[in-house]
Design brief:
Length: 281
């Protein structure tokens, strides 16, 4: 708790696919601290698979919801760096995000509304309006970026300065013109029909657990049957130790996940993001 008369220092998180072998993350942090020395910097991950926007989007959103209101979340998984995609500042009712306009904010924005197209391919980019209560601005004002902008490192030269200036109190409107539509990854919600819910695996964590977008209540979980590509699991376990092999469980994300005790479900069943999952209730 902050002392009386003192405000808590601003908090900013970083999510990237830069890894730890190079100095890319440190360079971003150096830029940010040079602008706002009070910043508390928190690493979400720098181990997103290279160019895997969907992975970064899920990890970012799941971590961001646990941070204090008003935190700034800087995310850079950016296969289109230097290209035509916009650089964005997005303000939601709970936080602000600085990221490329490539779908990286899909799950973060899904807390406030959804955008999907049943005709489009799974995870394909679609352009759609922001949810209610959210605003976006293009990072176009040169005052809030480095003087020399590399074509290949916008994380350091564009996104890091913007996140730092925003944390220091610069109003969002100062960064550039408003943006009404942004890129979402196409993630349709589960479909329920005749006592069956069909969803998808939306994330594979580092343990190989297959995390779905199917939310279930604990009541009746013992009667549920979970199916994925020929695997049929009767009932949901309450913990990972309840089964000797494959199991289904309501995980910490609040949705059904498929796991293998002391093993990797992704590796054992050769399944990953996008795999269809059915739950019979």
């Amino acid at each position: 708790m902050a002392e009386a008369g003192r405000t808590a220092p601003p908090v900013a998180t970083l999510t990237t696919d830069f890894g730890a072998a190079d100095g890319y993350v440190a360079a971003m942090k150096g830029v940010m601290l040079g602008i706002e020395p009070r910043l508390v910097l928190v690493d979400v991950t720098h181990e997103a698979p290279p160019q895997d926007v969907a992975h970064g989007a899920f990890v970012l959103a799941e971590a961001a919801r646990h941070f204090p209101a008003g935190a700034v979340h800087l995310a850079v998984v950016d296969p289109g760096v230097g290209g035509r995609r916009k650089s964005l500042l997005v303000v939601t009712p709970d936080a602000a995000y600085v990221a490329p306009d490539n779908g990286l904010l899909t799950h973060a924005l899904s807390r406030y509304g959804s955008a999907h197209d049943q005709r489009a391919e799974w995870l394909s980019p679609i352009r759609a309006p922001l949810p209610p209560g959210c605003r976006a601005f293009e990072l176009a004002n040169p005052r809030y970026r480095l003087s020399d902008v590399s074509h290949t490192f916008h994380g350091r030269d564009v996104f890091a300065p913007a996140a730092a200036y925003l944390s220091a109190g610069v109003p969002p409107e100062e960064f550039g013109p408003p943006v009404a539509d942004v890129i979402w990854l196409n993630v349709p919600p589960p479909v329920e029909s005749n006592g069956e819910i069909e969803g998808r695996v939306v994330h594979v964590d580092s343990f190989g657990n297959l995390i779905t977008n199917i939310a279930l209540e604990e009541d009746g979980a013992g009667r549920a049957v979970v199916e994925i590509e020929g695997l049929r699991i009767q009932g949901l376990s309450r913990s990972y130790e309840e089964a000797a092999g494959a199991l289904a469980i309501i995980g910490s994300h609040g949705t059904v996940e498929i796991a293998v005790r002391n093993g990797s479900a992704a590796r054992q069943f050769s399944e990953g993001v996008g795999a269809r999952v059915r739950v019979h209730c």
